[in-house]
Amino acid sequence: MPAFYAQLASDRLLHFNGDQVPTFLQGQLTCDCLQVSESQSVQGALCSAQGRVVTDCRVLCLGDTHYALRLRSDLRDITHATLEKYAMFSRTQISERNDQWTLLGLWGEDAATVLRTIAGATPDGRDRCLTTDALVACQADDAGEAFEVLVTRAAISDVLAALAPQARECPEAHWQQNELRRGLVRTTAELSASHVPQVLNYDLAGLLNFRKGCYIGQEVVARLHYKGKSKRRCGIYSVAEAADLEAGATLAPEADGRAVGSVLRIIRAAGEPSLVLALITVADSELPLIVKDAGTHRPHLQPVPLPYSLRGSSEAS
Is 145 a known ligand-binding residue? Predict the structure, then answer.
């Protein structure tokens, strides 16, 4: 059964209402919010004035003047408070309404087929959306093998019942590993306001638009893009034994033991190797790594292929 789904308790929606919402969000986020419609979402980030990522998000249109940000649950309050300061100057209302939708991740080779049996069709490309009375489904990858699905409270029982015979339910950690393998680094509370978007690979993953105009922190982000290059980025690594591995551990190449990075996050999923998100020097990002000063038991980290090259640079899109 090459289709899987998970209920996403770690994600929530932050809702926006008003006829100026796209214009309002355009001045806050790193993505082009003027492109958003019921059939088109965009991924982006909210930065601090210092250009550090507060949260990543997906911007969705849920109705004529109803929009939402999909973001991490542990960052919804700070995102709400940050944007509320600017919303008072726009005809935009922000609310959490967290009981209206259930968020699902659906992935695998047969994910599109499963979605088609439930919704009658599928989105027609990455970040494209399919909207029905019961759900909104957004394609999360280029291949059409990963979808974010928002289901209304009234329809969730029927949707889960339809999914059960066609896809295997997994813990949320499996979806989070799928996100990393797709090259999407999610900003958690521990990472919030600590890194510029380029360090989190957001320019490579399509979360930055350098032609859209100004937004909070834009000057810092654009300066690095046009006049510099990030010497550190996020690498993804697979490790068979991660029981003793912790965030903050120093990483080194197996060959010479130089300190070249550190562990940011570990995602452990039952039956699968653990995935490690690491802050790493770009020049060393393709090397197998070990935990420095870990004694005789040193977890071995193998680089995971990503859909982009950490050594490359993004287009000024």
Answer: no
